[in-house]
Design a protein that fits this description.
With 209 residues, the chain is α+β, with helices and mostly antiparallel strands. The protein has 7 helices and 6 strands. 62% of the residues lie in helices and 19% in strands. A hairpin with a 2-residue loop joins strand 4 (165-174) and strand 5.
């Protein structure tokens, strides 16, 4: 009984620690979700062991945990146009379940080392991403503007003044408006300045990426 209590407590602590990081950054799967997933995976793993002791297949329940967590993770993935969000949260849910299973099998040190490594990586990755923003990278802008070719020329001139290397530009007409797709290389600060200048143009109705 004492060992089971240790497993439950450790699952709550490690799952909660990873969940707090997600909740702090306002992600879909937060503290409570990660705690429940970690404790649930741990409990199913213990049941698998009991099943093996009773002569059943010890991997039967544990194998289904991986499949079940896959459905939970898929629910956090969202698509908005060409942008997909929630993949990191889904991967986090998958890893929290793995940590719960590790605790269930009694590998406490492995579970704690893995959880610590994930936390260090998650916190360090955000700082690395901020540095990467100052490097030029490909990005795509989608604009809706008035159906006038002078407006397109004005947008192109503005990009040239910003010394932006335009790789591709497509213009289509829908609902009596021009829909412009521009693929170019920007740094993070350049991208912010360009979007600000474009939105200040009265001819531009909307802008997104």
């Amino acid at each position: 009984m004492e060992e089971i209590l240790i497993k439950i407590l450790l699952a709550i602590i490690l799952g909660g620690a990873l969940g707090m990081e997600r909740q702090y950054h306002d992600k879909p799967a937060g503290y409570a979700t990660n705690c429940l997933i970690c404790v649930g995976a741990m409990l199913f793993t213990i049941l698998s062991e009991y099943m093996g002791q009773a002569g059943g297949d010890p991997g039967r329940i544990a194998a289904q945990v991986v499949t079940g967590v896959g459905f939970i993770g898929a629910g956090s993935i969202l698509r908005d146009g060409n942008k997909i969000s929630g993949l990191t949260t889904a991967a986090g849910v998958w890893l929290v379940a793995a940590i719960g299973m590790t605790i269930g099998y009694g590998q406490y040190m492995l579970a704690m080392m893995t959880a610590t490594a994930i936390l260090v990586f998650q916190l360090g990755a955000r700082r690395t991403i901020k540095l990467v923003e100052y490097l030029k990278h490909y990005d795509t802008l989608y604009l809706v503007c008035e159906p006038n070719w002078k407006t397109i020329e004005k947008i192109s001139e503005m990009l040239k003044k910003q010394k932006v290397a335009v790789l591709k530009q497509e213009v289509t007409k829908q609902d009596n408006r021009f829909h412009v797709c521009i693929t170019a290389t920007f740094t993070g600060p350049e991208f912010q300045n360009i979007t600000k200048d474009l939105l200040e143009m009265p001819e531009v109705y909307s802008l997104y990426k």
